[in-house]
Amino acid sequence: MPKLITACLMALLLASCALFPQRDPLRITVVGIDPLPSQDLEVRFSVKLRVQNPNDSAIDYDGLALDLEVNGQPLASGVSNQHGRLERFSEQVLDVPLSVSAFSALRQALGLSQNQSLDNLPYTLHGKLAGGLFGTVRFSDSGQLRLPRN
């Protein structure tokens, strides 16, 4: 009898996995950074993200959170209560305000060698689009910081 119950539970578990379709990961790229008014010892800026949904189903989201690491160290974080729907095979540009504390900026400055500039530093962006119990989508993007040339 216990073997029969175990077999039935295993069959139910496997069948329930089929209810959650496999999704391709979202494609997230940073497409812009704009300054925002700062307060006291923090710097604020808005990060523009292009979010592409390569899936055959829409993704509803209700909130967004980001963490930015530069040169392997945490630098900025931010949240937004934006909500919406990313239609199937579509894209949107989302703005997320990020804050850099004075201590994070100081840690970054101390981590640079004397010959190293801010240009071409590696960055990693981690985030999530909140979508309820089973709808949250996590993402990441990485690359090199490219400062504008005059």
Name the CATH homologous superfamily.
Immunoglobulins
Largest sheet data: 4 strands, antiparallel
**CATH-defined topology:** Immunoglobulin-like
Poorly predicted runs:
none
Question: If classified by CATH, what would the architecture be?
Answer: Sandwich
Q: Strand order, main sheet: write it out.
A: 4-3-6-7
What's the helix-strand series? HEEEEEHEE
Number of strands: 7
Give the radius of gyration: 20 Å
DSSP summary: helix tally: 2
* Helix-residue proportion: 10-25%
How are the SSEs placed, and which strands pair?
Blueprint lengths: L1 H18 L7 E10 L5 E12 L5 E12 L2 E14 L3 E12 H10 L10 E8 L7 E8 L6
Antiparallel strand pairs: 1-2, 2-5, 3-4, 3-6, 6-7
Task: Put the structure in a nutshell.
By secondary structure, the protein is of the alpha+beta class. Helices cover 19% and strands 51% of the residues. Strand 1 and strand 2 (42-53) form a beta hairpin.
Q: Could you characterize the architecture of this molecule?
A:
Strand 3 and strand 4 (73-86) form a beta hairpin. It is built from two helices and seven strands, in the order αβββββαββ. The protein has one domain (24-144): Immunoglobulins (Immunoglobulin-like), CATH 2.60.40. The protein starts with a helix and ends in a 6-residue tail after the last strand. The longest helix has 18 residues, at 2-19. With 150 residues, the chain is α+β, with helices and mostly antiparallel strands. The radius of gyration is 20 Å and the shape is elongated. It has helices spanning 2-19, 102-111, and strands spanning 27-36, 42-53, 59-70, 73-86, 90-101, 122-129, 137-144. It has a four-stranded antiparallel sheet with strand order 4-3-6-7. A three-stranded antiparallel sheet has the order 1-2-5.
